[in-house]
Amino acid sequence: MLQIDEVLTLDLLTLREHTELAGDVLDAQVQRQFIEASMKVSEIAAVRRSGALVAYAMLQPREKGCWFVTGFNTHPDHRSAPTFRELFEQISTIARLHAITSLKSNVYKTNRLSMAFHKRLGFKVTKENVKGVEFHATLVDLKANRSVERTDLGR
Fold this sequence. Notes:
Layout: H1 4-21, H2 28-41, E1 43-49, E2 52-63, E3 66-74, H3 81-98, E4 102-108, H4 112-121, E5 124-128, E6 132-138, H5 139-144
Parallel strand pairs: 3-4
Antiparallel strand pairs: 1-2, 2-3, 4-6, 5-6
């Protein structure tokens, strides 16, 4: 079972720099409360290595078929094809169980890795402001993407 502390530790490791570059503050207590609230209403995919959390995704329903990616994070030492494949296989299972047809996600513009990752997967920018963008992708588009096709999501 996913624990709040392990998600918080991963978030604090990877999110602080681009959050502060965007002019916001990553406060540990506020982030803990956000994680706790999100976990109560999200479907969660998690990847572990030697028992330690190395990647997770939290998905919440927003409207019929469209779910929001509330959290998606991978430890820098585990950003690899096997880790992403395992995470996407779990996301695929969640998508099938809940008839998810599309995903939305918000990303700080300062998070260059996430911006590039979303674009590489086939997400399109649907909204934009000074600090961030909203991405959207249908599962059909994601399945057609070469970066995803070898995972269960692509089948």
